[in-house]
Amino acid sequence: MDINALSQTVPVRTPVANKLPTPAEVTKDFSSYLTDALSQVNQAQVESANLADRFAAGEITDVHQLTVAGQKASVMLQLTMQVRNKMIESYQEIMRMPI
Predict the structure, then answer these.
(1) Is residue 15 part of a domain?
(2) Which is a Gene Ontology cellular component entry for this protein (predicted)?
(3) Does residue 10 lie within any of the structural domains?
């Protein structure tokens, strides 16, 4: 058994504990996430309306492009409404909890 080989080992380094985010940081991140999501939904709605206007003016002849944009905006809006409804239900459930 070679004892000299043990002296060549690298010392063990313990990782620094990860700093947990504060409630204010989490709230800010969630708020920015919701703001970005609503912005994307609004952008899809605006894009769909613009394509519909261009289609009505005869600038666009591709109905598929218009249909896809309309369905995309519709699905995004439905998802947003479902998330909103779940958030309201959660808030109401918290308010009903006894103290």
Answers:
(1) no
(2) bacterial-type flagellum basal body
(3) no
Residues in Cβ contact with 21 at an 8 Å cutoff, skipping those fewer than 6 apart: 29
Q: In total, how many domains does the chain have?
A: 1
pLDDT in tens, 70-93: 999 999 999 999 999 999 999 999
pLDDT single digits (tens) 51-66:
999 999 999 888 999 9
The three-state DSSP-derived secondary structure of 13-76 is CCCCCCCCCCHHHHHHHHHHHHHHHHHHHHHHHHHHHHHHHHHHCCCCCCHHHHHHHHHHHHHH
Rounded to 10 deg, the angle between the 23-56 and 63-96 helix axes is 150
Single pTM value for the model: 0.66
